[in-house]
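If you are new to this repository, start here. Below is one unmodified record pulled from the training split, so you can see the exact layout before writing a loader.
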Amino acid sequence: MKLAAQLYTLREFLKTPEDIASALKRVKQIGFNAVQVSGVSPIDMTALKEITDREGLTICATHIGYGDLTDNVEEVIERHKLWGCKYVGLGGLPQEYRTSKEGYQAFAKKASEIGRKLNEAGLKFIYHNHDFELAKFDGTTGLDILIQESDPEAVDFEMDVYWIQAGGGDPAEWVRKVNGRMKVVHLKDMAVTSGREQRFAEVGEGNMNFGRILEACKEIGVEWGPIEQDQCYGKDPFECLQVSLNNLKKMGIEA
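And here is the target side for that same chain:
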């Protein structure tokens, strides 16, 4: 598994093309060789490719809006082919599908249709979870419904280990559950304050068992581990990414 910077962490520094160029230069200086494109303000697809090429950064994955995946899939395909990026991600389940078993089943069907179109272009659809997918419907979690009801050839997953933990799941076991259907995993940690507040933390600075998580990722052949920190609580997000990267390197994972 290779590490990447999930650019959503740096979203406040990605407001203009000039900001994006400056931020990606810092990402490279920190020690990253790859990024996941998410949270980036509008920029011409060719201009972004020029920036990443100049900095020597691979675009390993993305998060794309659901509307683009349903209505503008040809443009999505063109963009990803230009970027040399195989993994086309959806960052979360649209609200209308979240409240029932039937909703999850309907989305699984829709995701399979999207995934087949991407497969034909040599790309791969990946679904990123939060914690709400661990709600149960007739005794089965929403995430299990998505796994079971979607076409295994068309829909892969991008487990976010923090959100699995937040939903009461075992991140390592959920990683193993999608064996054969996950090449990208989101790495982030969870800390708890003395006031019982659950917080995002730099990887290795929180309470999650990353030894088990990384072993599970190795077992199933994960290719990319984008590092993400949704909130940095007043700290410099670039410094947070640096701490996570350094800690993961100490755990034996390379950028």
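Two things worth knowing about this chain: The mean pLDDT is 98. The first helix runs from residue 17 to 30.
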